[in-house]
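TASK: fixed-backbone design
INPUT:
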């Protein structure tokens, strides 16, 4: 009968015991694995971006209001004072560099383009808030086969009274040879100006004066492709 040597149990136990450094290494590797997995999941399923308000471009080809049945000379819409609708002149918070934009359209006759060398007015210069109704008015007038005449826009000094919104570029004077003044006043109202005055024949001649409120905080010009007056001036330099 063969006798086997006695089995050394203590030696076996010490041989299978995991060294402490190996446990630490295992934990570190596990943590790395979890981090790697999370990173992979985030890359595969990127989080939806925070909702960013999308500025919708207005449709400038359609009127924003119905045509009023009548718009007699020397009446306004709404039938209120201009300052109660468009807001009073506030030059202290007006910045020409920030608020004015340069609008151009070959379908329009711009009075200042036909002025002499001594006249430095620029009828392409309007407040940002006035751009969209102006562009819509151009569309509405052009759709009738007529040509809008822009007689006056931004006037920092000069012909207008001391409270005139022309000083902020928030007012515009227009005429049209092919459309009756009353019809033009209706189109201005339909184009979205906040306050429209059908001015009858006077010292300044019959025309339509229209104005707008300032943009609310955070609002930007809603018609794309517009450049500021400062950018337009820079682009013209050789
Ligand atoms: Zn005016």
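OUTPUT:
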């Amino acid at each position: 009968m063969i006798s086997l040597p006695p089995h050394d149990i203590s030696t076996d136990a010490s041989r299978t015991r995991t060294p402490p450094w190996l446990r630490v290494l295992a934990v570190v590797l596990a943590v790395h694995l979890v981090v790697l997995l999370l990173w992979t999941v985030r890359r595969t399923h990127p989080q939806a971006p925070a909702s960013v308000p999308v500025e919708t471009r207005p449709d400038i080809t359609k009127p924003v209001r119905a045509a009023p049945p009548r718009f007699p000379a020397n009446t306004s819409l709404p039938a209120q004072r201009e300052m109660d609708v468009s807001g009073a002149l506030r030059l202290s918070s007006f910045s020409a560099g920030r608020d004015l934009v340069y609008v151009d359209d070959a379908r329009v006759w711009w009075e200042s383009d036909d002025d002499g060398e001594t006249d430095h007015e620029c009828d392409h210069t309007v407040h940002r808030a006035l751009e969209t109704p102006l562009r819509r008015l151009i569309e509405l007038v052009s759709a009738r086969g007529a040509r809008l005449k822009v007689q006056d826009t931004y006037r920092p000094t000069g012909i207008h009274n001391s409270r005139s919104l022309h000083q902020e570029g928030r007012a515009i004077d227009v005429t049209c040879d092919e459309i009756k003044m009353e019809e033009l006043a209706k189109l201005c109202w339909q184009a979205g100006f906040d306050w429209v005055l059908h001015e009858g024949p006077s010292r300044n001649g019959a025309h339509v004066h229209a104005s707008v409120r300032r943009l609310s905080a955070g609002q930007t010009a809603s018609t794309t492709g517009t450049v500021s007056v400062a950018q337009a001036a820079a682009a013209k330099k050789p």
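COMMENT: The chain is about 30% helix and 15% strand.
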